[in-house]
């Protein structure tokens, strides 16, 4: 760092608040709280229109403000913990604090139901002491710690300003410790989690389940891809599960979603029986097992459920458009959501094990 920059850094009297745009109300309350403590302290908050003038390059302004501050308050809420900008700004401030912890600090603060314990085994914030803004004593400690950075240990906010921050911060559920991040593919026809992509990722086991799997059986390329995948290596498994056309009540229920459903299911059964015929004619040593059951409530594709890299894609029915390309993909990885993954996998695997082999349907 150049000498001039060092002097500017050491003489800085700025607090930088890193936050998600949805948390603007609380961020501005924190800004007001610290600005009321000392007239020499300035607080940069990108949600405050006065902090970024019209015509300025907002990214450069934010980076300059972070670089020239002495304190970064990272506002951690359910809105912000997965936002790349908050992680980016917090990471930058952490690097600055490691370089000169006497003159710069990054302070994580939790609000809106999020607790420091929610970060256990969930990223870098798990290793940094956080304060809880719903707790008055934590706010007082935070003010004292920040005051020390500025050479003033008498940072004491008014009871009114503390109460405002506490009340706002206390909103929200306290159950965020059981929530994990997931991925969503917006459309089935443009998602990186469609079955053809999953087949390319799979190592040992592919599981496919759906009410009729009409979208699967009408694409010859998918059948070829699955058969080729089974041929490529021994001891691979493909399991396919769909509704039993003999279960009249279940078939009739799905008729509400699509009048074409009974016909589509019947065609899928015939097509999948042909799949088995082709598979067996090739003398493939890997396993293709197709079964039918009473009801398959959600289309689901799973790859390698026994491996740590397992991935599950849930594809809900869009009412009146059960087979349309508009259907989204909800992705659950075993790495990030082990409990949820195991719940679905155990349920579907148990259903599959009790299901009837498709060749026994006449």
What does this entry look like structurally?
The chain is of the alpha/beta class and 362 residues long. Helix content is 38%, strand content 17%. It has twelve helices and 13 strands. Strands 6-12-11-10-7-8-9-13 form an eight-stranded mixed beta sheet, sandwiched between helices. Strands 2-1-3-4-5 form a five-stranded parallel beta sheet, sandwiched between helices. The chain is elongated and about 85 Å long. The chain starts with a helix and ends in a 5-residue tail after the last strand.
CATH architecture of the largest domain: 2-Layer Sandwich
The named CATH superfamily of the largest domain: Endonuclease Chain A
**Global mean pLDDT:** 83
Give the structural class.
alpha/beta
Task: Give a brief rundown of this model.
The protein has 362 residues and is α/β, with parallel strands linked by helices. 38% of the residues lie in helices and 17% in strands.
Quick tags:
362 residues, alpha/beta, Rossmann fold, Endonuclease, Chain A, five-stranded parallel beta sheet
Topology (elements, then pairings):
Blueprint: H1 3-10, E1 14-18, H2 24-35, E2 42-45, H3 58-67, E3 71-76, H4 84-99, E4 105-110, E5 131-132, H5 136-149, H6 159-169, E6 183-185, H7 195-201, E7 205-209, H8 214-217, H9 220-232, E8 237-243, H10 248-254, H11 261-281, E9 287-293, E10 299-303, E11 311-315, E12 329-333, H12 338-353, E13 356-357
Parallel strand pairs: 1-2, 1-3, 3-4, 4-5, 7-8, 8-9
Antiparallel strand pairs: 6-12, 7-10, 9-13, 10-11, 11-12
Helix pairs in contact: 2-6, 7-9
